[in-house]
């Protein structure tokens, strides 16, 4: 495997949760597997006044709790922690960037990292235009000595207009090849496996189109509420938080054409083409194609849980959606008129992300005495998390007299592999950026196309109070009207369980 070039990872917003829970532990996992370059350092930046020692102590706790590879010795952990530095400065103050430049020069010389820097923006989005502009001002985006890469966390914009403005501003300071827009779903092993399942198997691809597929269902369910992120979530909601990015990305990977090559340009071209083919939903049609909901207080397994409006940082009359479901179409040759149903929500019965491909029924029901088999079309379930795997459902004869049919499962679980180390999404994505590979990062045009699709829905929800925000008791599968999106009587969403092979009302959650 290629080793990244020597470099410094500069994290803006280093005193925050993302750095503590995800970034520093993920880089530790890379270190543990010998995947970091020989000369490497992390420079954490933030306003909180921490020195190197306090920063290292805090990160040590984060690593112990969140790294996938738990440190097997104090010595190893300490040799990683020695690479961590902290510099306190006010990112909003342009005058302080020359101090940062001095600090970077000092570390660059000490570590011999040849001017190679990765900047990670783990700050509130209000800083996404300011920091790159100031780095550019100081000559810190210039690649004549060493690479300079910029990782931008989500949310990438608040709507189409702000995403366009952000893209434009970033592109005045950095080139597109230097910008890495992160969507941690692309870093998930099982999301990447979508490409392999589709394009390395002769059996699926010929069926992967409007002739054989009846509809596609994508679920991103969480069984937790907003916790202490109420303040952020109030301005976001499920549509901005999960659907505009993670779920549409899954739509892109399920629906894309085979790329000419597995590389950044070709894969990203195909994803962008899907987004450009999404049939626009006009503001006046929103009630017909999208449902929004909000969890209300309830009792789950004997435990009383709060409703969204009782959460910290949330307005008592909030209309922010914690559940959203959309019926969408992709207007191209492969998918014309095949409905895609996508839904995401907080405080649902279980945490599960999965894609269900519903194949069309046979043209003539020979065994139609068992009605349910005709309704339960063949399904291919691609489980992103948890119990990662793939499940095929098909009809089998019930042994004995006559021709009674029953639906059975054929399933593969990642956990059955002898080598099951699934790297964390951040680990994979950070390594890719270190190697200069942007395949699993979003390109600016695709992000804008995704916003263009969701903008009318968000506008309608904001401007038209007659579109209801349906309450759903925490711990249920969202508003029951979300079933109305699926017009056919005999079809519903799959109600998945923790275990891939189970579904329905009676299962372990
Ligand atoms: C984040 C959202 O992008 O994704 C969170 O901001 C959400 O609200 C999270 O909980 C879900 O990610 P995962 O990897 O747990 O499915």
Automatic annotation (TrEMBL):
Substrate binds at residues 184, 188, 222, 241, 346. The active site is at residue 246. Belongs to the glucose-6-phosphate dehydrogenase family. SUPFAM superfamilies: Glyceraldehyde-3-phosphate dehydrogenase-like, C-terminal domain, NAD(P)-binding Rossmann-fold domains. It is an enzyme of class 1 (oxidoreductase). The keyword Oxidoreductase applies. Its EC number is 1.1.1.49. Keywords: Carbohydrate metabolism, Glucose metabolism, NADP, Oxidoreductase. The keyword rRNA-binding does not apply. The gene is zwf. Pathway: Carbohydrate degradation; pentose phosphate pathway; D-ribulose 5-phosphate from D-glucose 6-phosphate (oxidative stage): step 1/3. This is Glucose-6-phosphate 1-dehydrogenase. Catalyzes the oxidation of glucose 6-phosphate to 6-phosphogluconolactone. It comes from the Bacteria. NCBIfam families: zwf (TIGR00871). It catalyses: D-glucose 6-phosphate + NADP(+) = 6-phospho-D-glucono-1,5-lactone + NADPH + H(+). Residues 10-193 form the Glucose-6-phosphate dehydrogenase NAD-binding domain. Residues 195-494 form the Glucose-6-phosphate dehydrogenase C-terminal domain.
């Amino acid at each position: 495997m290629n080793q990244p070039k020597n470099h410094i990872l500069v994290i803006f917003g280093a005193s925050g949760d993302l750095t503590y829970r995800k970034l520093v532990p993920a880089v530790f996992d890379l270190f543990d597997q010998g995947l970091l370059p020989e000369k490497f350092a992390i420079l954490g930046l933030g306003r909180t006044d921490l020195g190197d020692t306090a920063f290292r102590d805090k990160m040590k706790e984060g690593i112990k709790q969140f790294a996938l590879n738990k440190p097997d010795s104090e010595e190893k952990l300490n040799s990683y922690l020695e690479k961590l530095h902290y510099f306190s400065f006010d990112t909003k103050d342009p005058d302080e960037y020359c101090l940062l430049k001095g600090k970077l020069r000092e570390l660059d010389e000490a570590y011999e990292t040849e001017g190679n820097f990765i900047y990670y923006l783990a700050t509130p989005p209000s800083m996404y235009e300011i920091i790159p502009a100031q780095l550019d001002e100081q000559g810190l985006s210039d690649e004549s000595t060493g690479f300079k890469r910029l990782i931008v966390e989500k949310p990438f914009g608040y709507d189409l207009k702000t995403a366009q403005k952000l893209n434009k501003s970033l592109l005045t300071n950095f080139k597109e090849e230097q910008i890495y827009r992160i969507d941690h779903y692309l870093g998930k092993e099982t999301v990447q496996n979508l490409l392999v399942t589709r394009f390395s198997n002769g059996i699926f691809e010929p069926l992967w189109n409007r002739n054989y597929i009846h509809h596609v269902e994508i679920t991103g369910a969480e069984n937790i509420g907003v916790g202490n992120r109420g303040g952020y979530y109030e301005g976001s909601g499920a549509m901005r938080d999960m659907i505009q990015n993670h779920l549409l990305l899954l739509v892109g990977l399920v629906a894309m054409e085979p790329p000419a090559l597995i590389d950044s340009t070709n894969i990203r071209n195909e994803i962008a083409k899907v987004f450009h083919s999404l049939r626009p939903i006009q503001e006046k049609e929103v009630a017909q194609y999208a449902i929004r909901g909000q969890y209300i207080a309830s009792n789950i397994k004997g435990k009383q849980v709060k409703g969204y409006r009782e959460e910290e940082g949330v307005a008592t009359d909030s209309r922010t959606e914690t559940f959203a479901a959309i019926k969408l179409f992709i207007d191209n040759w492969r998918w014309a008129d095949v409905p895609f149903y996508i839904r995401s929500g907080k405080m649902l019965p279980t945490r599960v992300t999965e894609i269900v491909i519903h194949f069309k029924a046979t043209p003539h029901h020979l065994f139609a005495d068992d009605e349910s088999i005709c309704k339960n079309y063949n399904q291919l379930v691609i489980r992103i998390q948890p119990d990662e795997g793939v499940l095929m459902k098909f009809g089998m004869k019930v042994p004995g007299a006559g021709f009674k049919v029953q639906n059975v499962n054929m399933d593969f679980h990642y956990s059955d592999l002898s080598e099951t180390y699934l790297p964390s999404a951040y680990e994979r994505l950070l390594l890719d950026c270190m190697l200069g590979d942007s395949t699993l990062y979003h390109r600016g045009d695709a992000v804008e196309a995704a916003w263009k699709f969701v903008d009318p829905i968000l506008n309608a929800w904001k401007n038209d109070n007659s579109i209801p925000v349906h309450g759903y008791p925490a711990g249920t599968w969202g508003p029951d009207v979300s079933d109305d999106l699926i017009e056919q009587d005999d079809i519903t969403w799959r109600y998945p369980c923790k275990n891939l092979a189970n579904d329905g009302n009676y299962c372990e959650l």
